[in-house]
């Protein structure tokens, strides 16, 4: 709805700019301007009369009978000029010459008053007091011909008010507030005369304001206030609403009641009816009574205003909601009178016909629609009115944008008497819906064809398991015709002994909030019509349709698959047993020595059937020496296990020959170099039980952890060489170096492969620190006997590999404990301790 339709121009109303502010009646505004012009003219006449009195020497024109002060000549000229200025300003339409003349006259009055104030302020005479006439009437004035100070102030303020009122760019209050100030100064003079209080007409010993001057100032203040009655504070009083009416009543009460009550009290006091104190009390009581009545009358008016305002807001809101509703309705909405003229349309109507509502409202169908469509619409309207009931029909309309399928609803709007006065129509475009219905029918045909062409038996049930549809494949699988299964329970196609379990599966699936398609093939069986059972795979999915939940079951006989799986499982188990036997035959069992305790753990990768490339060995060399070797062949599976077996045998043989660790590593390196594309890390230690030391050499292997009996766990400082098999590709061979480290009795050694400490997303150094700390905690205060070492090995594996069932690398852990001397008995004498340090081939 356009702005012009929402707020149409009404007779005797203001334009859109004023109507958007406050409601005004033009006649009231015109009357206010007339009052302002009359007041200005009367003030100007009073000034002219006073000036005539000075010219003609008529004293009554200059001074009111019974008054002391006389109108000064300058005052009469200023009042005449100011009245003329305000008379011009109060006109509704001003021309350029009127504005110029009004401003000149206002300036004259303001300058006259301003210069007089300067004279009072400085005590100097500017020669303006007797510029026109010689003053021989002064009785009180200190300077002949000089107007009173309050008169000069009022003229200055009045001139400023007239100048501001002549400019439409300035706010209205810039002229109305000074006008009220001029009115107040004039009223003080009138109150002083009415109450016989001379102090209200003069200041100290200065000349007082003339009675004619006070009356003229009251009129000028009124004229300045009402010159622009539709703006500012005056607009609040002059608006046509209840607010203006209430303001006018209160303003009139303030202007009339207090002066009248004051006069009555003074009259009573002058007549000696009561004293001053009683008079003051009566004055206060009178004000309280009057203003109490005014307050309650204002409350009544305010209540009425609130109710009318609330009702108006509600009505406007309802209209806005209704218009917003029909404008945002995707359907075409229109209202016509009984003759077919459009009264209201929505935006969809405009878009459908390509016409704005301004070009539609007030016209008939034939004026805005194609002739065929107009005749069709008019005939439908008349048929609905003749039937007297709402009509709804689906039809094809040829619109400017092309043919459209629509659903038309027609009904009449009736008055309280039941007689129709308008026709309302709602036309909904259902082209897409009709097309969708056609597509649904085609999709249903395609779906049935697809259902019948599916290779598996397909059943569609409701949420309670009742079969609603089945394809032809169910007869081959279950021995029942599809038509015979419709209406039966799908659980009837399951053997009786298994129905409870199958029903639980289906119920658990449907109880999910948003069940996803799943495939079940474990423990599910079907029942043939001849009573035979067979394993099945069921693909299960659901669909939320209008009629409820639909469940799709695609059933396949997997008897042959189960047989093949059983055969594969049997072959896999056989292969696993072979691999396990091979791994253990290659690994062997480490020697268990009474003078050297040990515990070990080996975990194969879950990706291989129990075989890998890790190995370890404990080799007795002589009475006081024991060799310990741990290695890791890069890679997994049978190939790594085969290389591991060869290296274990070779290291065992070389150790038995009594080779020192560096020479043993050199020999193994040469052996690995003969193997194609192999890389091996290895560490070899020779533990000297009697000398309490260990000689070791590392080929790229992880550091050995030692836990002394009286200190924290630490890494043995070993020169780490290159892995075995690397020297074959190097220009110059890298020698393997060995070192001898002290090993106090009661110490524990931890030798391991990278599978124990290397995991994705972790720092291997941090994992080694965890290994050392866990070893220290596990064996703290416990002797390194077989039982404590075995418990410590379990604790280390749990700490570093939380989920052993998912670990994808081989893991080897070997713990060696050196007993205390009193546990091994007396030591036999041997050779002197070997020099500690690093040695290697020369």
Summarize the structure in words:
33% of the residues are buried. This protein is an alpha+beta fold and 842 residues long. Strands 13, 14, 15, 16, 19, 20 and 23 form a 7-stranded mixed β-sheet that branches. The protein has 25 helices and 23 strands. Helix content is 47%, strand content 17%.
Descriptive labels:
7-stranded mixed β-sheet; disordered N terminus; single chain; alpha+beta; 17% strand; 842 residues; disordered C terminus
Beta strand %:
15-25%
Q: In terms of quaternary structure, what is this?
A: single chain
State Rg: 58 Å
The number of distinct helices, counting runs of at least 4 residues, comes to 25
Secondary-structure content class: alpha+beta
- Tell me the span between the first and last alpha carbons: 107 Å
On the 0-100 scale, what is the average pLDDT?
80
What low-confidence regions span 5 or more consecutive residues with pLDDT below 50?
1-21, 824-842
Largest beta sheet, briefly?
7 strands, mixed
Fraction of residues in H or I helices: 40-55%
Query: Can you tell me the overall shape?
Result: elongated
Overall number of strands: 23
Which helices and strands occur, and which strands form pairs?
Elements: H1 3-6, H2 16-19, H3 26-56, H4 59-62, H5 73-89, H6 96-122, H7 149-165, H8 173-194, H9 211-226, H10 232-238, H11 242-270, H12 276-328, E1 332-337, E2 342-345, H13 347-353, H14 365-368, H15 371-387, E3 391-399, E4 402-414, E5 420-429, H16 431-453, E6 457-462, E7 467-470, H17 473-478, H18 482-485, H19 499-510, E8 518-520, E9 525-527, E10 533-545, E11 548-557, H20 559-587, E12 597-603, E13 614-620, E14 625-633, H21 638-656, H22 661-673, E15 680-688, E16 693-699, E17 705-707, E18 714-715, E19 720-721, E20 738-742, E21 748-752, H23 764-778, H24 786-800, E22 811-817, H25 821-824, E23 838-839
Parallel strand pairs: 16-19
Antiparallel strand pairs: 1-2, 1-5, 3-4, 4-5, 6-7, 6-11, 8-10, 9-10, 10-11, 12-22, 13-14, 14-15, 15-16, 16-20, 17-18, 17-21, 20-23, 21-22
Helix pairs in contact: 3-5, 3-9, 5-6, 5-7, 5-9, 6-7, 7-8, 7-9, 8-9, 10-11, 11-12, 20-21, 21-22, 23-24
């Amino acid at each position: 709805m356009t702005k012009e339709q929402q707020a149409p121009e009404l007779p005797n109303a203001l334009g859109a700019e004023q109507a958007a502010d406050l409601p005004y009646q033009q006649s009231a505004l015109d009357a206010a301007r007339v009052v302002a012009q009359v007041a200005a003219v009367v003030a100007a006449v009073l000034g002219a009369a006073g000036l005539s009195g000075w010219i003609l020497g008529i004293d009554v024109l200059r001074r009111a009978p019974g008054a002391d002060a006389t109108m000064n000549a300058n005052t009469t000229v200023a009042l005449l000029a100011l009245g003329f200025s305000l008379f011009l300003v109060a006109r509704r339409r001003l021309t350029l010459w009127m504005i110029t003349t009004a401003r000149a006259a206002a300036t004259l009055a303001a300058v006259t008053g301003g210069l007089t104030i300067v004279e009072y302020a400085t005590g100097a005479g500017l020669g303006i007091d007797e510029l026109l006439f010689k003053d021989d009437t002064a009785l009180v004035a200190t300077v002949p011909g000089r107007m009173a100070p309050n008169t000069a102030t009022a003229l200055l303020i009045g001139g400023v008010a007239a100048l501001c009122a002549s400019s439409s760019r300035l706010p209205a209050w810039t002229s109305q507030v000074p006008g009220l100030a001029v009115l107040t100064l004039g009223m003080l003079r009138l109150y002083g005369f009415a109450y016989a209080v001379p102090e209200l007409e003069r200041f100290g010993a200065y000349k007082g304001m003339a009675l004619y001057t006070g009356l003229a100032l009251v009129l000028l203040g009124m004229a300045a206030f009402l010159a622009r009655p539709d703006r500012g504070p005056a607009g609040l009083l002059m608006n046509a609403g209840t607010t203006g009416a209430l303001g006018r009543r209160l303003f009139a009460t303030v202007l009339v009641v207090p002066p009248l009550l004051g006069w009555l009290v003074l009259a009573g006091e002058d007549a000696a009816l009561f004293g001053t104190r009683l008079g003051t009390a009566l004055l206060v009581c009178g004000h309280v009574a009057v203003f109490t009545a005014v307050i309650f009358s204002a409350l009544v008016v305010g209540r009425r205003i609130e109710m009318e305002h609330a009702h108006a807001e509600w009505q406007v809101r309802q209209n806005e909601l209704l218009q917003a509703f029909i404008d945002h309705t995707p359907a075409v909405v229109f209202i016509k009178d009984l003759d077919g003229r459009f009264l209201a349309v929505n935006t969809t109507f405009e878009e459908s016909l390509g016409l704005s509502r301004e070009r539609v409202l007030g016209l008939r169908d034939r004026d805005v629609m194609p002739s065929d469509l107009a005749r069709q619409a008019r005939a439908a309207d008349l048929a609905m009115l003749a039937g007297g009931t709402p009509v709804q029909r689906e039809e094809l309309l040829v619109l400017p944008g092309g043919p459209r399928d629509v659903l038309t609803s027609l009904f009449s709007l009736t008055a309280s008497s039941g007689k129709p006065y308008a026709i309302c129509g709602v036309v909904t475009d259902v082209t897409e819906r009709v097309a969708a219905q056609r597509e649904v029918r085609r999709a249903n045909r395609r779906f049935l064809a697809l259902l019948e062409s599916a290779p598996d038996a397909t059943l569609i049930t409701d949420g309670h398991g009742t079969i609603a549809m089945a394809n032809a494949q169910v007869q081959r699988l279950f021995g029942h015709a599809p038509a015979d299964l419709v209406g039966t329970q799908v659980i009837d196609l399951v053997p009786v002994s298994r129905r409870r379990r199958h029903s639980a599966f289906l119920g658990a699936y449907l109880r999910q909030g948003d069940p996803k398609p799943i495939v079940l093939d474990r423990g599910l069986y079907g029942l043939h019509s001849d009573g035979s059972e067979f394993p099945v795979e069921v693909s299960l999915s659901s669909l939320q349709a209008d009629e409820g939940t639909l469940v799709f079951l695609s059933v396949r006989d997997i008897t042959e698959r189960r047989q093949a799986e059983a055969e594969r499982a049997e072959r896999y188990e056989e292969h696993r047993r072979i691999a396990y036997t091979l791994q253990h035959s290659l690994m062997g069992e480490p020697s268990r020595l009474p003078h050297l305790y040990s515990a070990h753990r080996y975990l194969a990768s879950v990706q291989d059937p129990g075989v890998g490339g890790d190995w370890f060995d404990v080799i007795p060399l002589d009475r006081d020496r024991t060799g310990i070797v741990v290695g890791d062949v890069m890679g997994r599976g049978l190939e790594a296990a085969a290389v591991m077996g060869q290296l274990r045998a070779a290291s065992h043989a070389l150790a038995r020959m009594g080779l020192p660790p560096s020479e043993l590593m050199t020999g193994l390196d040469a052996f690995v170099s003969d193997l194609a594309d192999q890389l091996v890390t290895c560490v070899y230690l020779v533990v000297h039980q009697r000398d309490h030391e260990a000689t070791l050499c590392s080929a790229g292997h992880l550091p050995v952890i030692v836990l002394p009996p009286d200190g924290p766990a630490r890494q043995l400082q070993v020169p780490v060489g290159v892995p075995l098999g690397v020297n074959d590709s190097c220009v110059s061979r890298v020698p393997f170096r060995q070192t001898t480290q002290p090993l106090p009795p009661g110490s524990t050694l931890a030798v391991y492969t990278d599978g124990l400490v290397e995991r994705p997303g972790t720092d291997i150094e941090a994992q080694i620190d965890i290994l050392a700390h866990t070893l220290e905690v596990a064996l703290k205060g416990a002797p390194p006997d077989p039982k404590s070492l075995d418990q410590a090995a379990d604790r280390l594996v749990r700490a570093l590999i939380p989920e052993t069932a998912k670990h994808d690398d081989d893991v080897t852990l070997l713990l060696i404990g050196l007993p205390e001397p009193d546990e091994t008995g007396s030591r036999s004498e041997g050779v002197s301790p070997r020099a500690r340090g690093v040695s290697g081939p020369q």
